[in-house]
Specification:
Layout (H helix, E strand, L loop, with lengths): L2 E5 L2 E4 L4 E8 L6 E8 L6 E6 L5 E3 L7 E6 L4 E6 L8 E9 L16 E2 L3 E6 L1
Parallel strand pairs: 2-11
Antiparallel strand pairs: 1-3, 3-8, 4-5, 4-9, 5-6, 7-8, 9-10, 9-11
Length: about 130
């Protein structure tokens, strides 16, 4: 059973930056594709970014050029660097994991593609 723990959320002014981390345990991290999703109050969970076990990345159009996903396998950690934050980025951010062999790259933006989820970390961007 894989456990995921997010950290790094907080309150930041518009234009600022935050780096989220997601630490994984209980599995072979290098074999997992990892994703970041977010959910604002009253809205559905939406895709933010994903990274395959081989390092290929995918981003939602709304965050391209502002957010960067990366991973450090020896630390069992995936990161989300968020720059030029906007009030509309306010949400609870979740990381998720799936065995790479069971989820193709093009399926990674879909929440249902993932087997494991963290509890989330709140990001609030003030205007």
């Amino acid at each position: 059973q894989v456990q995921l723990v997010e950290s790094g959320g907080g309150l930041v002014q518009a234009g600022g930056s935050l780096r989220l981390s997601c630490a994984a345990s209980g599995g072979t991290f290098r074999n997992y594709a990892m994703g970041w999703f977010r959910q604002a109050p009253g809205k559905e969970r939406e895709f933010v970014a994903a990274i395959t076990s081989g390092g290929m990345t995918n981003y939602a159009d709304s965050v391209k050029g502002r957010f960067t996903i990366s991973r450090t396998n020896f630390k069992n950690t995936v990161y989300l660097q968020m720059n030029s934050l906007k009030p509309e980025d306010t949400a609870v951010y979740y990381c998720a994991a799936v065995t790479s062999s069971s989820s193709p790259y093009l399926d990674l933006p879909r929440p249902g593609a993932y087997d494991y989820w963290g509890q989330g970390t709140q990001v609030t961007v003030s205007s």
